[in-house]
Every structure is written in C-alpha cells, then in structure tokens.
Amino acid sequence: MREQDPLERRRNIREVPFGYSPEEAMLEASRCLLCRNKPCIEGCPVAVDIPGFIDLVSQGLFNQAAELIRKTNCLPAVCGRVCPQEEQCQAVCTVAKSHKDQAMSVQIGKLERFVADWDREHPVDGDGDRAVKPTGRKVAIIGSGPGGLTAAGDLADAGHEVTIFEALHRTGGVLVYGIPEFRLPKDIVEFEVEGLVRRGVNIVTNVAIGKSKSVDDLFAEGFDAIFIATGAGLPWFKNIPGEDSLGVYSANEYLTRANLMDAYRFGDGSDTPIMRGKTVVTFGGGNVAMDAARTALRLGADESIIVYRRSLAEMPARIEEIHHAQEEGVRFELLQDAVEIVADEAGWVTGVTCQKMALGEPDRSGRPRPVPIPGSEFVMPCSVVICAIGNGANPILTEATPAIETGKWGNIVADPVTGRTSMKGVWAGGDIVRGGATVILAMGDGRRAAESINEYLRTGVW
Amino acid sequence: MSSFRIRSNDPIAPSVFRMEVEAPDIAKYRRAGQFVIVHPSGGRERIPLTIADADPVAGTITLVYQVVGRTTAEMALLPAGGDLGDVAGPLGKPTHVENFGTVVCVGGGIGVAPSHPIAQAMKSAGNRVISILGARTADLIIMEREMRLASDDVICVTDDGSYGRKGLVTDALKDLLDDPSAPVNLVVAIGPPVMMKAVSELTRPYGVKTFVSLNTVMIDGTGMCGGCRVTVGGKTKFVCVDGPEFDGHGVDFDGMMRRQRMYSADEKVSYQAFLKEHGCRLEERIRELKRG
Prior knowledge:
The structure holds 2 protein chains of 2 kinds.
Chain A: H1 6-9, H2 22-29, H3 39-43, H4 50-58, H5 62-70, H6 76-82, H7 94-99, H8 108-121, E1 138-142, H9 146-157, E2 161-165, H10 174-177, H11 186-198, E3 202-204, H12 215-220, E4 225-228, E5 232-235, E6 248-250, H13 251-258, E7 279-283, H14 287-298, E8 303-307, H15 319-327, E9 331-333, E10 336-343, E11 349-362, E12 368-372, E13 378-381, E14 384-387, E15 391-393, H16 396-400, E16 426-428, H17 431-434, H18 439-459
Parallel strand pairs in A: 1-2, 1-4, 2-3, 4-16, 6-14, 7-8, 7-14, 8-9
Antiparallel strand pairs in A: 5-15, 10-11, 11-12, 11-13
Helix pairs in contact in A: 2-4, 2-8, 4-5, 4-8, 5-8, 6-8, 9-18, 13-14
Chain B: E1 6-13, E2 16-22, H1 24-29, E3 35-39, E4 47-55, E5 60-66, H2 70-76, E6 86-91, E7 102-108, H3 112-124, E8 128-135, H4 144-150, E9 153-158, E10 165-166, H5 169-178, E11 186-190, H6 193-203, E12 209-213, E13 229-232, E14 235-238, H7 239-242, E15 245-247, H8 253-260, H9 264-291
Parallel strand pairs in B: 7-8, 7-11, 8-9, 9-10, 11-12
Antiparallel strand pairs in B: 1-2, 2-5, 3-4, 3-6, 4-5, 12-15, 13-14
C-alpha cells in the first residue's frame, strides 16, 4: 500500500498509508484462494466473514462487502487500521502458508480498511437503515471506547434502548485520546459514533459512573443490564529517582494532550500545552511507546529515542508500527533500561541514566529476562521523557461498587466467554478486565458481552 | 448531550468570580471536598475547580474561580443564561468527615471557597468549627458571610492588616494551637501551596492531623492520564483519584510546586493572546465589582 514519504510524514499528523485504489483492492482481493477451511475467520476475534467480503471486493461490489463486514464488526474502518492482523487473521492465511512467508498473506486488514472507507465515502441509499423491533429493555454501557461502542451497536441492533456514559467530553475512549491521528484519523471515529447515534444509541458525556450515579442508581433508573468498559487506568511509572522532574510524562498524558486536547495545534486553536523537547526519550516497547515516539517527531523533536530493555525480537509492538517508527527516524536503543532521570537545579529533565542489559533465562512471560550489566551506566541527554510501560486498573467504578469482584491488580474479574461479573446484571470487558490489551480484543469482549446480555434479557437467567 | 446552563456569573472580589451552574446530577451527588473538571469550549484546557456549594433542590452548583489564565478568563466572559460547555463531576474522594472535636478550617485566598462545604460538613457532624480566612488585603477576603454560617467562629487575617488581624493565617492558627484550654483535633488547610506547606510545618510539631486539598494540573481528572501525580509519604499518588485531600505532613510540597510551574511560559502565551483580543471585555467584567 502506498504511504506518505517517511521524511515528510514525520512532520505532519496526516495518516501514513494512503489506502488502496479500487483497482488495487480488487487485485489484492483476487489473491484470496477462498479456501474451504477459512482459518482467517477463526483468527478474527469478532469472526468477520473474511473470504465472503473479499470475494465481493474482487467483484467490485464494495458496498455489499461493507454490509457483510458490518454484520459482525461495527467498526471496520477502525479495525482495518489498528488490528494486529499479522497475529490474527493474516497469521493463519492459507496463501501465506503456501508461500511459507507470513508477509505473503492476503492483506485482509488493508482490504477491510478500503471497504470501510469506500462505504463511508460512497454511501448507498438506505444503507444502515435496519428496521428493528424495540424490546423495551434498557442497557447502560459505561465507557465509549472500542468495547463499549461495539456492544452498543450490537445491542441497539437487537432492539434494546442503549445509553453510553462517557467520562470525557468526547466519545471514542482510547480511539480519540490515545491512538494518534496519523494512525487513526479522528473523523473516522466520529463517523462511526454518528452511525451509532443514528441507530438510536444515546450518548451522555461528562459522567463518571461511580462518582455521580452508581451502578445501583442505574438499575434503579430502569436499566436492565450494564456493560462496563472503562478502559485503561492509572499509568505505571518505573519508580526510579527523578521521575517527578519537569518534562516527564506518562504516555497516557502525552498522547491525551496531543490527541484529545490537540496540543500539536497549541497557539493555533488549542490552549493545551505540551513540552516540545529537541530530544525525547520514550521507555517501553509496545504500540503505545511507538505512538508516543512518533508523536514526538511530529511535535518537532530532532531526535526521538525508544529505550527498551530487551531486543527487537521481544518487542510487543506490531511489526508495522516498529517499521513505521524506524522509517521515520525513531532511534531504537535496545537492551538498556533507565535507572534514573537526571534534572537541572530547577527540576527540568536533562537526561536519562541508562544501564545496559543482557538477555538471560526466560521469565514467566516466556521472554528472556533482561539482566543488568554492572558498571555499564551512561547518561543519554534529553529534555522530555515519556513512560510507556503500561497501566493499572481504573479504581473509580470498582471502589464504588464492592459487589463487583476484582483481581489482585484491581481489574474486574469477568467470565472469559460471557463477560459476566460477580454482580447480577453487570458485564465487563476490554482493558478494565484484561489490563493493557488491544482495540480488537476489547471489541471482541463487547461483542460477546452483548450476546450474553441478549440471552439474559430474553431468558432472565443469570 | 447535557447542557450546563449558567444561572449567574458575577465578580465577588478583584479577579474572583462566583458562578452558579445548572448541574442537577453533580448537585445531587457531590460531597464536601470533591471537584469538577470544566472545559468551557473546544480548544480550551480542562481545568479542575472545587465545588464551593451546591443546591440539590434547585439542581445547581457554585464554582468560585480566580481569573489566572485563558480558561478562567473565558469563563468570566460567559453570560448568565449561557452554557458552560463541559462539566464533569463530582470527582475525587470526598473529605473524611466525622466528629473529631474541634476542627480548624484554614482558607487562603480563593481556597476559602473549597473550605466552605468542608466547614459545613464538619459542623453538621458535630464538630466545633473555627475558620481562619486569609488574604493579602481586605478586598480579597471572600465568602465571609457563608463561612460565618458554617462555623462557630471565624478569624479573618490580612497580610496588610486592612481587615481583621494583621499577619498570616499561620499566626492565627498558632495562637489556637497554643491555647491549652481548647485543643485542636484537626486542621484542614486549603489555599496556595506555600500556605498549605506552612500550615503543615506549623502543625507537625503539635502532632495535629492536617488535611490539605491539592489543586494540580489535570486533564481527564478520572485516573487515566497521571498528570496530577504528587509524592505523598514517599509514594506517587494521583490527586484526581487518591485525593484531592492528603495528609499535609506527608506531601512533598516543593516537588508539587515545581511541577505546577511546568507550563507557566505556555500558559502566559495563551493568556496574552486572549487578552490581546478580549482584554477590554475582561477588564469591564472585573470592574463590575465596584459598580456592585
């Protein structure tokens, strides 16, 4: 797929890939063997009929393809962009297997994106108008991220009256505060949310359930079921000296300033400031670390450096994100770990003391354990530090609702198949259950919870 | 989308405004010590403001704010009948209220506003409440009438002696702490960080428990971004979900004050740009105070 030139795009916030032309999409779709066992569907957390939609694309029936995807995935334009296809549908693609090369798989994600974009830009009359018989049942969804939006779509289609409660002033959760514009344009999220509103979903912003209304209040107001999808919680820091210096961010804060609050337009329509250092160091090796390091370039950093304890092979980020970051000039400093943040007398960050690491025996995660090399410390000068090493659980809802069982780290305990919690009528999914996971896993949770909610509302059996 | 209609928005002291806003759910659920995040319009910052009062029957909350930058300046220009934009809350943990005995509420500057619901709650819990209201000068003493209603006794203190006792709030507090006939069981101090630090240092040798309410930079205010972090008792705490109240004897005030300066230069840029365009209107609003 054609992309913006790396040296150009590192200074703008526009999306990186341009997307397929119709001809390119049809050509790519024709590579699908339409094999009988369809492993790709199994590989998809929401079981999109992948060969079905690809067949339609190869015939040029793009709107029909979109309609087919939407039967199981209400956010195809989002998933086509941010799903880790190489670990899911594309990992098991028969074409890739026959070539013994994963890179040769049918580009399912890019095709999904094309179809969703085509459908958005070339709407068909009557598209999306599905006559639904109202059930008279009410469902509350707490959090408007990918899990909440997916559940809302499915539940609205089932005829329930759905209300989403969102704590922020904008709808979309991590899709608007976390994932940068250059990876997921915000107007796409807005379009998907508008689609839900057209299908009758109510959205109430500025409400943190648990602080104003409680879960019990929602039941008292007549909601029959509640799905909790409140997402990521408090950011983790490394607990090293100097972390409260000026210029140290959590990735959550850095990305929220840049994305939700438009800090990249500071002084030109946005008042939210963000520190624009010449050299920015990001700790961590996940997708969020890549997002932060690439955002730093777009905010004008001369140098954006990723410091990661292990080697490239162990990095949890998607390969595509690592490649994009490398192409744009993000420097990867591997096998080292920060042990101290150094600041000047006034408290401003001047550098990070790093220690070199070697890979040892595998730890519990199965990855080789990073082992510090004594005496290898050195100072890496920088003026901004971003900590992208994960999040804990958000405490607001669970502290206010003792009937919902939580695990050791404060995450909600939910049935892995149905999403049911220990409290009757309450489901949970996404990062509040899983800790740091992905958009598509949250969506899968939303889908399964919606199914379970439908069943509960039909049978009354908990 | 819910609308937060402004009932009134008037100056009560130089550069200090009191705004009454329709927010029925917040008015119903808020408890002493909690705050809201205000985001007056797209492009502005999200700022935390403590709730100074609430009327659950009328469905309104009262915010008292000082114009210190672009967001608060824009708030000052909003007319009664207008819309405040986004208001999320109540947020933060409520004040721990019980019958401690004698509680001294120390409010400095606009810190009196957040002290007000705490004094009310402490009083209803059966405490003897003494409030110390401090300001640089007479004009800047706010909410004295409300504080008198919520307290058994009120002591006003001004730096220049233009009203009440001359000196600092710590001078008045020290006299109370030194009075053997009336022991102080709890101090709640809210105001500028230097004041809260001084109060905490003063009470430490007396062993009197001291709560402070911190007002740090926040974005979401719901435990997601981590921008409001502060060190308390050697541990990283988040003001939005662990606070805003903390044991003053454990707070690293110097670290907090340093972090509060992180965006001073940028904040100035935004404010100057605003003043260039709307400075006259803002001055006009501030002058309304004198016209009564």
